[in-house]
Amino acid sequence: LVVSSAYAQHDHHATPSPAQLQFAPVLNTFLSDPELQKFQLQSTLMTVPPSLVDTVSHRHDAELFGYVVEGTVEVGLEHKEPATFKTGQMFYEKRNVLHSLLRNPDKSISAKVLLIYVIKDGRKGYTKEYP
Known about the structure:
Shape: globular
Mean pLDDT: 89
Structural class: mainly beta
Distance between the termini: 20 Å
Strand order of the largest sheet: 1-2-10-5-8
Helix content: under 10%
Number of helices: 0
Strand content: over 45%
């Protein structure tokens, strides 16, 4: 996803696009251990714009690790009180846990989080809880 703050060239009533999560692929590879040959590591760098709040409840049919490269994020699971993670900290989400909140509390700095999934071939990486 690409975020643009440019105005439409001829529409003087246009407004900037709302801030959105951005994802940039890093590395996707199957694991080499014979016992894990149907599993792969998928990684992406997620950018969370300043003040963004994402409440789209969803699940990942994978083990998910998140390493905060820059900034601060708040992560809420199962509609419980969110936990705060800052630069240099890592979080873990168990397979199929309900992810109910992602927030960047900073009003001026984007947060960057390296997301690392360990997923079995054929499983869905993302499913909305409420379609």
